[in-house]
Write a structure and sequence with these properties.
The complex is a heterodimer of chains A (247) and B (318).
Chain A lengths: L1 E6 L1 E3 L21 E3 L1 H18 L2 E7 L5 H10 L3 E5 L6 H15 L3 E5 L10 H9 L3 E12 L2 E8 L2 E8 L2 E5 L11 H7 L4 E4 L8 E7 L8 E2 L5 H10 L5
Parallel strand pairs in A: 1-4, 1-6, 4-5, 5-11, 6-10, 7-10
Antiparallel strand pairs in A: 2-3, 7-8, 8-9
Chain B lengths: L1 E4 L2 E2 L2 E2 L1 H17 L3 E6 L6 H5 L4 E5 L9 H14 L4 E5 L2 H13 L3 E6 L10 E6 L4 E7 L4 E5 L14 E4 L10 E7 L12 E5 L10 H10 L2 E4 L1 H5 L20 E5 L5 H7 L4 E6 L12 E4 L2 H16 L1
Parallel strand pairs in B: 1-4, 1-6, 4-5, 5-11, 6-10, 7-10, 13-14, 13-15, 15-16, 16-17
Antiparallel strand pairs in B: 2-3, 8-9
The chains are: A alpha/beta (247), B alpha/beta (318).
């Protein structure tokens, strides 16, 4: 099978977020960048598991400059076969999705994986945009995937207060959530072989993004905590009703 | 026109649908445009939409909408938006809404922003605000395309009755066939709201020491009519089901009240809950980082404090 995993670069989950002078860009000093956890832990590992059972290849696709190659090499170390990097800064969901879908259109894949969202802009829009451009079915927030045959999958997806189970034929696009797979740590052999795996650089298509960042803000500081005597929960109940007005 | 796609379930408009309508109404007032709603499928009672500001609801009745296939739904929403020449399309940032927004926007050649938390600024461009970096920051983004598609974060706006008369207009458009075969939908049998919609949440961490101790937390949740949740280590140890996990890699929530019991407050957990309006932290460790994010803190043994709080709330309710 021909599998593709779209990967994105995000700040580490423990990163303290700050912005540059005019608050238009992230202050990157002191921030470690990682592969978006949903892309790595769930989408990539699931694709590798399918390839291990059904054969074929797992390619990774990334939109970003060459400084992001370390993240692509990590995906190769975990077990992807080869990689493609579209040489453009990813500036918006519509632009990244357009670049990737245009690439996919030319190459054709059986299953295209993304993470359920990125942990920076948390948009969850890229998978759907690619699905619309490619006229492919899109299964979002998948927590479980089982191939019935080489061209049909049974998938469970998370919905409010439950799960939905569905069947779909390849090709399709799927966004992976927790439960899809278990995180894999690259081993020494994987790290060594990743250096010689092919990483092809693709020139981006001309595209005018439809959304732009105006300014970032940090959340307003919380009022300092009001401590309540643990013996006096009647007081807490009263404050929740009369002061916070939430019960 | 502002067109709002309204999610329904079992013939009822979902709370997320009402919020989207009211959000669409407030946006349309600002822009001097009418606010119309769209319902896909049969049987849903549209009268409540008038209360929150829609003047017209367009309804397409087809068995294509009996099961949710995001390709079928997004194609229909985009076609209706084109048919009505809508300039703003509003969706809910729900599980289904998240799978629609990218597709609807692509079909309309539109820019899109999901999980919007405030009514757009429309004086100088179309600027929306949303939480980013898993709620560690906020961003204002401008949608520069002629048509704008946005989805509304749950619990982000206050519902106010504005009471408009509503007209229901049946609509027919050509639909695409579903490519996804939905086999089953399993909903947890529950009397309380699912986590993303819940107004009150009671959440437990490792401080409860084991799944057998969850009774005191459930009693408190019941007294508050709250939904239960848990931290990542608790879900990872299978003390509680995974769908209860709130935090950066679980579900991000913004209830009116979040009570954290025996949760230390790691940065990844805070990222998923720090938009809650009021946070109560109960922990025996006065150094727990969660207290810094709390409105009310109780330093004490949760096994004594929680039943005491439950009793206090019950007597308040009497």
């Amino acid at each position: 099978m021909k599998l593709l995993v779209c990967i994105s670069k995000t700040p580490d989950t423990t990163a303290k977020i700050a912005f540059n002078g005019d608050h238009t860009t992230l202050e990157t000093a002191g921030i470690t960048f990682i592969m978006n956890p949903y892309d790595e832990w769930y989408a990539l590992v699931k694709a590798i598991e399918i390839q291990e059972t059904w054969g074929g290849t797992v390619s990774v696709l990334h939109v970003g400059p060459s400084e992001n190659d370390a993240i692509i090499r990590k995906a190769l170390a975990i077990g992807a076969s080869d990689a493609f990097r579209i040489d453009a800064e990813a500036v918006s969901a519509d632009q990244a999705a357009f670049q990737m879908a245009t690439f996919i259109e030319k190459h054709g894949f059986d299953i295209i994986f993304t993470g359920k969202e990125t942990i920076d802009y948390n948009g969850a829009e890229v998978g759907g945009r690619m699905a619309a451009q490619l006229s492919l079915p899109f299964i979002s927030f998948a927590s479980h995937l089982e191939m019935e045959s080489e061209n049909e999958a049974v998938i469970k997806r998370d919905i409010e207060g439950g799960t939905e189970t569905l069947k779909v034929k390849t090709p399709f696009i799927i966004s992976a959530a927790k439960g899809m797979a278990e995180q894999r740590i690259p081993n020494m052999k994987g790290i060594m072989t990743s250096k010689s795996k092919p990483l092809q650089v693709i020139q981006p298509e001309a595209y005018q993004p439809k959304v732009k960042v105006v300014q970032h803000e940090l959340p307003p500081a919380k009022k300092s905590v009001q401590y309540i005597n643990p013996e006096n929960m009647t007081e807490l109940a009263r404050l929740l009703r009369e002061e916070a007005k939430v019960i | 026109m502002v067109l709002v796609f309204v999610e329904t379930e079992n013939g009822k408009v979902r709370k997320a649908g009402l919020e989207a309508v009211h959000f669409g109404y407030l946006t349309s007032q600002k822009m001097g445009l009418p606010c119309h709603a769209l319902i896909l499928g049969e049987g849903a009672d549209a009268s409540s939409l008038g209360l929150y500001g829609a003047t017209t609801v367009h309804q397409i009745s087809s068995n294509h909408f009996n099961r949710f296939d995001n390709q079928v739904f997004s194609d229909a929403i985009a076609k209706v938006a084109q048919h009505l020449a809508a300039s703003v399309v509003v969706l809910s940032h729900s599980a289904n809404g998240k799978s629609l927004i990218g597709q609807v926007a692509y079909h309309l050649g539109a820019g899109s922003v999901s999980a919007v938390i405030e009514i757009p600024e429309t004086e100088n461009g179309f600027i929306v605000k949303k939480g980013v970096f898993s709620s560690k920051a906020l961003v204002k983004m401008e949608i520069t395309s002629p048509i704008k598609v946005i989805s509304v974060q749950g619990n982000a706006i206050q519902l106010n009755v504005v009471g408009t008369e509503i007209t229901v207009k049946p609509l027919e458009i050509p639909l695409v066939d579903p490519k996804i075969d939905v086999i089953s939908v399993d909903k947890l049998q529950s009397n309380v709201a699912p986590l993303p919609e819940a107004e009150r949440v009671v959440s437990g961490g490792r401080g409860l020491k084991g799944p057998e101790n969850w009774g005191i937390l459930e009693d408190l949740a019941q007294a508050l009519n709250a939904t239960t949740a848990c931290s990542r280590p608790v879900a990872d140890s299978d003390w509680r089901p995974h769908h209860e996990h709130v935090g950066q890699t679980g579900i991000a929530i913004r209830p009116n009240l979040y009570i954290a019991i025996g949760i230390s407050g790691a940065i990844q957990h805070l990222a998923g809950v720090n938009n809650s309006k009021t946070i109560v932290v109960i922990n025996k460790d006065p150094e727990a980082p969660f207290f810094k994010a709390a409105n009310y803190g109780v330093v004490g043994d949760l096994f004594e404090v929680v039943p005491r709080l439950t009793a206090a709330i019950k007597s308040l309710n009497e």
